[in-house]
Structure formats: structure tokens, C-alpha cells
Amino acid sequence: MRVLELFAGVGGMKIAYQMAFSDDKESTFEPIEILPAAITVYNTHSISKHRAKNIIGLKIHDVDNFDMWTMSPPCQPYTKQKSSKELDLDDKRSDCFMHLLTLLRGVSKRPTYIIVENVAPFYVRNGQGRMELLKVLKDLNYNISEYIINPKDSLNIPNSRNRYYLLARLNKTFDNEILQTNLPESKLKMEYSAFVRDYLLKNVPQECEITLSTKCKRGSLFDIVDLNSTSTMCFTKNYTKYAEGTGSVLKTSDQDIAAIFENHCVRKCEGDENCCLKQVGLRYFAPKEIANLMGFPDWFDFPASTTMKEQYRMIGNSINVSVVSSLIKHLLS
Ligand SMILES: C[S@@+](CC[C@H](N)C(=O)[O-])C[C@H]1O[C@@H](n2cnc3c(N)ncnc32)[C@H](O)[C@@H]1O
User: What NCBIfam families does the database record attribute to this sequence (predicted)?
Assistant: First the structure.
């Protein structure tokens, strides 16, 4: 199998494929990724050494003759955040995805298999991006199956990451044409711990500590979990940059944190010597711990040349490989 891994990032799609077909040592992967730090991570688990490339510069011959395309295009055009306003195809960041759809129409040998991953609003909003994707795939005679899957619900993994997936193939129809919210029966038979404690590192980088000043200013906005929690919020690329809505933080002591924060509000002690938050044990999840929650294998790690900021950004942009490996298995079944 020759796989073209578009928007490759740190290589989640390749790892998911290899988890689905662990006996397959023949398949080759061509990652296309613009971010040098992501390619550096990718190269640590690849025999061939790849260079960063921009999808916009790809020509038909660059994408022709592959058996499979994997794509997780940037989600900003379909989400409402500070830097994105659900502009869909009017957002410049969707240009590369549209460029790929044009190339797909032009190749002499179409990929037999395609998998696309994106945020759930890509489907829910019924926007132009998805409409264009469906139109091209239907014109080219692909059979299609769509999913919205959360690893917390489908695999009992203690991390929420509700995502849209589209499977397309030329050779065989799918049983279900309506949107699926559960993994196919053929999913990989793997056991996952339901508890946060089983995904944690023994030695956590110093930078994961949350400073007193951050606890004072933003502590009440955090989603706080503990070792025995069975859920964490979706970790985004802005984790540690913003306190709210970017991922959970871990309580490392037995204190009643809610009561301490209440007291803190009343006393308004702002990081001074007697601040009641001084003894509160709270830390960020390490990038490797987030990777563990997202199903990455034990051997996966970030090279020392990448900064913590880059690591959070890259893992926050990546995929749940446990979910994707089951979907790839189904796609090729
Ligand atoms: C949603 S992330 C996908 C991450 C990937 N699936 C993984 O496992 O890490 C989108 C990726 O596309 C990359 N990207 C965005 N625009 C690109 C472009 N024009 N050319 C190549 N890569 C691009 C981003 O740097 C980012 O790594």
C-alpha cells in the first residue's frame, strides 16, 4: 500500500495504520506537512527523512498513484475561536483542502481508500467544505461512510475528543449510509484503562507545574481532574496558553480544591506570601501524557529539540489514533 499522508503533523495517521495492520511491513508513507517541528517529530519514527512541504504547491504528479490518502485538514475554518469565525471556504486556511480536491479530480490513478478527519462542526454545520468534499467524492464514484466519534464514549478512554470522520473507497460499498456515532463492529480488540492515573508519567517535566500567579489569575477557569477521574476535556493546541476550554489540569493533592478556590475569591489574596493557593497541588498534563490519552504507543515521544510549546501545539492538533486505527481497519476490510 502506498499511503499519501496529507496534513501529516506528527504522523498520527501512519501510526494508526500501523496499529491496525501490525504485520504489514511493506506499506510506504509519504507525509505532506508544512510545520518543520512536526516533520522533525515525524522523522524520529520514520526510516526515510522527510522535509516540510506546502500542500498548495503540490502538482498532480506529486499526488498521483497512491493507494490511500489520509487527510486531517486544519479545523479553524469550521470552528468559532479567537482566530477563526466559522468562515468555512472563505477562510484562507481551507484553500489547501480545496486544492487537494481539485488534484483528486485530475489524478490518473485515484486512491482506492480515503480517510478524512475534522472537528464535529465540519459535519454539524453542513457547511460548504463538507458539501464540496461529498460532491467530488460522489462525482468520482466513491462509496462513503461518515462518523462522529468520541473516544470517551466509544472506547471508554478518559479523554473527550468528538471528531468527524469520513471513509471513502472505490472498491466496495459500506453497509451504513447514515451518520454513525459508534465505531464499526470490526473495531480493534484492545483494552483501554478508564482511569486518568494509568496514562501518567512517573517523571513529569518541571514546566508542567502551574505557577502561583496563574493559579491566582486563572485557577477558577480550569477544568480540574484527579488520578481517579474517568474523563478529561479535549486537549487543543492552545493548552497552557488559555486556561478555559483547552484541556484539563491535574490535581496532585487530596485538598478540597473547590473550597480553597472559594476561599481565595473571598480573601482576594493575589499571589502574596499568605495566598491560600500556594499549597494547592495542580499541574498541566505533559505532552507525552496527552499523547498517551490519545492512543499513541509507548514508544512515541517528542525529540528534545522541540519546545514544550511546540509539543502542546502538535499533540493538540493531532488525532486519537485508537479511534482512527479502528476506522482504517474498517475502511480496508
Ligand atoms: C489538524 S492537523 C493534523 C495533524 C495530524 N493528523 C497528526 O497526527 O499530527 C493539520 C496539520 O496540517 C498542517 N498544515 C496546515 N496547512 C498546511 C499546508 N498548506 N501544507 C501542509 N501542511 C499544512 C498543519 O501544520 C498541521 O500539522
Answer: dcm
